[in-house]
């Protein structure tokens, strides 16, 4: 701590604390237009000038030092602040009353008021550029742009998409996209960082324009007229009176604009933000306080909410009649569901029914779904879609360290010296996590190794890109472990103190010589050695992995090999280290955590443990089944075998997201009774007997658990659409119709019950999760959580981790002469999975309208293919027709097909092979024959897709270039020796 005299009061500050933070903490009012705590000093606006030792310094760029004496309101400081702000106003028209940004949080408006500006000395000067409306989600108005550069800093160094810059050397500087493209044709990925941090109305969400204000929906000509009126009266009245009018209008807005916190409904990063709404219109998404994301979002979280008010929403239950569905009342539909489930249970037994919960639903809803299966029906046949993706990673961690979750937090990934990403297209599948790694790599010297088949964005940024043969990650990981142990590079002290099973593990590594690894993986011995040394030399290493690892027939073993490698290098138990399986859906972690698994009750308590069962039986007042139920892969097999007669699926597009889709659909056709609960009539609904309209995340309360085990509350942003019900209420209705007698009035009561039954969640309650508060499990009864796992012990009885030997078997469904191409698949940034939600956002559809198959330039040349050529992909299991996209992201005979299609889903091509431990489908092991069709269409990705843009990486806003301009002088030092001519009320 240091002591700083601030305006005559001695205050304590951290040694590296910026003066502006100290000033703000002390409640002093110093303007700071370009400073944003999550961006750090940008230093473009000069409004934060304070006086220290007779000289002016920028408070945002100066660290507190012992003995400093700072004056924030001396004549010199005040004059400089006003002068700087006057320059800003010359770039901005103050027409707040008719501005959609007049919502109490406009920095330019608030600073005008703070400095009591009455008149501008430097008149407003229009810039010679048009407004750019070419992005579907936001627009840029150069005339309103104050050139603060916050947007540039956010794009360059937080999002690290590196699209934005400012042409400081130009006579009329402005913000540029890709150095001068339109926004629409630039590399902008519409993540919204820039719009979120813009301190005025220069960058604005289009959903705000004409909607936020009372007068802003007027025609442009009328608005221009009003702006002229404001300008006309300003010389006489001054800004003070004008601001009073606009503040009266702003106060009126407060009554009709609601700001409600929610958690993103898409991926597992767990971004949280306020949703601004006016009636059912979503004005904007405002990220700021989220513990996982701060100001960050990706296009889906920021703009992908078209599904909420979509005309296609289901608003009434449907009951099948022959080949058609008819509308039904809730009473009739619930009555039918309860009656048929009871009949089938009575006739064929409880285990002839199965339940699938949704990882889009809340923790409380997942809990109720498994309670319905276990306590009301009497079966453990309950699962969730982590079976399709994450179960192998969970097993790998359970085997080695004891908990099946990320071992630390996103902040640990930021802190690591070395990040290794394996089989994860992080920049597209977990975009906000990718921003943290990209930023640490760009700014803090973090090293990055990426192993993938595809040269995705992270691969292109990596210090080392590994492209092993498909399905061979286990081999090179194990070879590195062996090399490190053989060469005395393992962390012996850590192993001695914290790890069991070294000798057996060392023996299991015998086959993994460097020679064998080179032969099997195609990576050179030298490359493997390089990776080994990079890990050995790094002080802290994190490994991130996803479906490229888990969706293989040895997904569990490869996940285990990753954790083994981290253990022998001592990369657990410290900040910046650990294992990070990146969870796919927003609540896929929570769905498993809360018991929607055939072998586990909540908190991974085994169904075959009598003590555990007894605790639940006492609370639920039932006798529970004790044998493991069917997982969702086994459910499909059981239907085909005639053993499973009825299913109840919530929110899962199972008919096309399970692998070997044709086989799954054939199973659904055989069911005696099938209930699907969803917000749209999904492809899976086609096979249903009853369809129940649930509610999307914005229309309910509850909690989600993100990839970093972070439990967060979501609040009801909008009431459920007429006719829809929150899923927890529907499940309760079904249970009660079957005589359960549940009486939950609010999801908080469900969470209280979960906490009472689950040691891992003992201290979780809604009070501790209020607003933006969150908890990372395990949570002790006193509310203590664990952002970083294993700081004192591993989660085994003796506190030690376990090295778990694995061997290599090799992938299934390999290419041969007939099926000669390897087919990989995964997500796209813009769409979530098959796109049931994201296609309902027009701007996303415009930018990314269709699915495609990526073909390497060399294969394209060999087969006479160009972007837009229609091809038929034929596998051993099915076929799809799709357009080709020629790109060097894929190499040789490896294809890549994203999942964003209901009409041509990649899973018509995938097999029924699974990971041998978890039954997770081996989606990534597929071989196809490609038939080139005569037809050539347009490129499946339009020119306005950001992948065609040309980013302009630079260090940030590069304010030094501004300072070199001939017309720049720091305020207080130029323009008449620091004499400021502004008239103020002060
Ligand atoms: S990528 Fe686009 S939306 Fe995101 S910060 Fe950059 S310019 Fe803004
Ligand atoms: S567009 Fe960028 S430079 Fe212009 S005011 Fe907004 S954040 Fe500042
Ligand atoms: S999709 Fe994921 S990264 Fe994007 S805003 Fe939502 S939680 Fe964040
Ligand atoms: S806030 Fe310090 S220069 Fe802008």
Explained architecture:
It is globular, with a radius of gyration of 30 Å. The longest helix has 37 residues, at 220-256. It has 986 residues and is of the alpha/beta class. The chain has 31 helices and 37 strands. Residues 975-986 have low confidence and may be disordered. A hairpin with a 2-residue loop joins strand 1 and strand 2 (9-13). The strands form ten sheets. A seven-stranded mixed sheet has the order 14-13-27-26-25-15-16. It binds iron/sulfur cluster (3 copies) and FE2/S2 (inorganic) cluster. Residues 145-151, 175, 198, 200, 202-203 line the site of one iron/sulfur cluster (SF4). One iron/sulfur cluster (SF4) is lined by residues 154-155, 159, 161, 163-164, 188-194.
Fold topology:
Elements: E1 2-6, E2 9-13, H1 19-26, E3 49-52, E4 55-58, E5 68-71, H2 75-89, H3 107-114, E6 138-140, H4 150-158, E7 164-166, E8 175-177, H5 193-197, E9 203-205, H6 220-256, E10 257-263, E11 272-278, E12 281-286, H7 299-303, E13 318-321, E14 324-327, H8 330-348, E15 353-356, H9 363-377, E16 382-383, H10 391-400, H11 410-415, E17 418-422, H12 426-429, H13 431-443, E18 447-451, H14 457-461, E19 464-466, H15 473-486, H16 492-498, E20 499-500, H17 502-508, H18 514-521, H19 525-537, E21 541-545, H20 547-550, H21 555-568, E22 578-581, H22 588-593, E23 600-601, E24 605-606, H23 610-620, H24 632-640, E25 646-650, H25 654-657, H26 661-670, E26 673-678, E27 690-693, E28 702-705, E29 710-714, H27 727-737, H28 747-757, E30 774-776, E31 801-802, E32 821-826, H29 842-847, E33 853-855, H30 857-863, E34 869-875, E35 879-886, E36 894-898, E37 927-936, H31 959-963
Parallel strand pairs: 1-5, 15-16, 15-25, 17-18, 17-21, 18-19, 20-31, 21-22, 25-26, 26-27, 32-36, 33-35
Antiparallel strand pairs: 1-2, 3-4, 3-5, 6-9, 7-8, 10-11, 11-12, 13-14, 13-27, 23-24, 28-29, 29-30, 32-37, 34-35, 34-37
Helix pairs in contact: 8-27, 9-27, 9-28, 10-21, 15-18, 15-19, 15-21, 24-26
The structure holds iron/sulfur cluster (SF4) (3 copies) and FE2/S2 (inorganic) cluster.
